[in-house]
Amino acid sequence: MKRLPRVLVLTQFGTIGGSSRIQVLQFIPHIEKSGFRCTVRYMYPDSFWRTQMHIKTAGGFLRFLNLFLFLSIGLFKKIWFAVTAWMYDGVIIQKETF
Fold it and tell me: Contact, 81 vs 8, CB < 8 A?
């Protein structure tokens, strides 16, 4: 059996982020239907988005701490994804993710 080409898809947010949905995630089913196997990874969790967009209640200091923590984690995730990208046949990166 022929191995399907693997594609790493990197987005800023999961499905909660409108930019990720519109710019990348809506195309995943079409890419997979074309014969590719997609692995979707996102830089920041939904909880980060909710806090920064004032959907989740947090004071000024907690919002700053949330920002600092998840931007730091995001930096290490970017490095990790760059180092492991060789395992895929292709990489799709959402605008402004890197």
Answer: yes
Backbone dihedral angles phi then psi of residue 91, each to the nearest 5 degrees: -135, 130
Torsion 52-58-60-61 (CA) sign? negative
Output the six-digit token pair for 61: 């200091």
DSSP H/E element including 29: helix 28-33
Q: What is the DSSP string of 32-86?
A: HHTT-EEEEEESS-HHHHHHHTTSS---HHHHHHHHHHHHHHHHHHHHHHHHHGG
C-alpha–C-alpha distance, residues 35 and 91, integer Å:
15
What would the pLDDT profile of 8-18 be if each residue is shown by its tens digit? 999 988 877 77
Q: Give residue 36's pLDDT.
A: 95
- Which pTM value belongs to this model? 0.79
Distance CA(72)–CA(56), nearest Å, equals 20
